[in-house]
What does this fold into?
Amino acid sequence: MSVTHGPSEALDWTVVQRVRFAPMADPVGVDDLYTRGEGAGATRSGITVPAMETVSTETYFGGFPSHIWFRAAEVRRVRVSAHLSAPASVRIRATHTDGRIETLSIIESAGNLVHEVPLSDSLAWLWVEITAADADVEISDLHWSARVSAPAAGSCAIALTTYNRVDDCLAVLRALASDSRLLELLGRILVVDQGTERIADAIVGTTVEADLHGRLTLIEQPNLGGSGGFSRGMIEASEGHEQWVILLDDDVRLDPESAVRMISLASASPSPTIVGAHMLSLIEPTVLHSWGEQVDRRAFWWRPVDTRLAPVDLGEVTLTGEPALSAALNVDFNGWWMCLIPTPTVRAIGASLPLFIKWDDAEYGLRAANAGVPTVTLAGAALWHIPWTGKDNGLDWQAYFHVRNRLVVALCHANRGEGRAALLSVFAQDVAHLISMQYGSVRARHLGLRDALRGPDHLAGALPTRRGDAQALLGFAGQLPQAESSRAATPDRAPTRGSSAQAILRAVAHQLRPSPGIDTPPQARIHPGSGRWRDLGVLDVAQLDAASGEGYFLLRRDRREFLRLLRDSVVLSAALAFRWGRLAARYREAVPRIAGATAWRRIFSRGR
It folds into this structure.
């Protein structure tokens, strides 16, 4: 295996990844993401291997993603170090990007172990397997090092945006405070509070605040959505001394080692790089929900970077069990559930567009790439978050932001052909919602189409109000739009069979029938996974279970509303198609202005 030596040889060895042998307390049931085998007494920094038994770090958090370090940080050698309390056999093993598995070295050792491993562009993951000899072995302080620039103390900020999730926010802050190495690297922890339940009331003067040792800065502002909250954190960090800012959701569970690994990679990268983390499911904590994100240019919609990894149960599948885990994958952007952004990039290209929620992270990744700043999603760095499958954000008030922001981002970044494909896809989605009797969602989507037609200057003005406007269009009064809070005794319905063409003909024909009476009870109960237009399109009244499990959407067919909204979809889509070129030019010209700190400061100054 050939090795290239360069200027990095002059640098000291820097720890870039500590192997954690045990998880944090929450979530539970994720031990297999850290170690495998017959270990005992695992702590964060050590584990005991019983005599003649084996412990392996061939796990998501235990493996070292060498291909990412080779490509993003140009690292050509790494060093694995550990302390062994008694003699043991240590195997350094690897996968290749084509899925091959190899044993690189076998070392008989006791005491302090230090071993160098040359890297290549074909190596994917490295890990260690420790087999005890005839006595128990305690292995501790296992870590990977490289000759790279070490991040300076206080060189990273964290921007955490919260909205009425006080307990969740406190849990995240406790996790950050629990790791002394992470605290050393953090300058400020900027908590942007956009809710009505003030985080300050729950944290000022408490042990949580004290454990952060003066790093906590609380900022209160109106609810400007994720884009407004994260932009506030990005701008505050860019005006300070920090080199990077990590954007972090409030409704997550976090292992602080992930943040340390992200900062280490960012520091080692030879040029500014956005470093993202993966998303594990809070509902099924060993399931990886997002490995990385791309924008599908054929219809301008986001999609997983590899469908084999969306999702994959890492409690069942080891690093060698799924070849896609070792593939060299490129991403367009990383979700802002946890994403590190260089502050010089914020100063150069601005913060988020004022989109409230949805597509802000995708647009920023595309804009940064155009400015020469790539995004790398770092395997082995992740947090736990509610997956998209547990939300109904295509049916509730978020439907407005899905369609408007998709079109705004397409206008900023798509070519003419991609724009036409996006418009066709949006129109097809409108029809699917209409056939599914989701008229409120379509009304909210139409508001999004009209706003997109207004041009870029509508974005800032709509930022604080459009959530409420979309809720009003849905008749939002309780926990769920178009829904009852209790369950009805409605029979389940088997999925509709037949070809798509046959299903379309049946559904359209059914929509033209006279509307059902107001007292017509639900004919079927549809589960979220099968709640597609082909199932709902042949019903008059249906109960569609909410993805959250907290109630259902009550859907009732209305022929007049169907025809009226279908006409509006045609008219609005045609108007966008006709004006696309001129609109795209206006949006692209406006991006530096409306994403810049000056424009955002005007928005922030409007007060609560």
About this structure: The first strand starts at residue 13 and ends at 18. DSSP finds 18 helices and 25 strands in the chain. The longest helix spans residues 559-594. The radius of gyration is 26 Å.
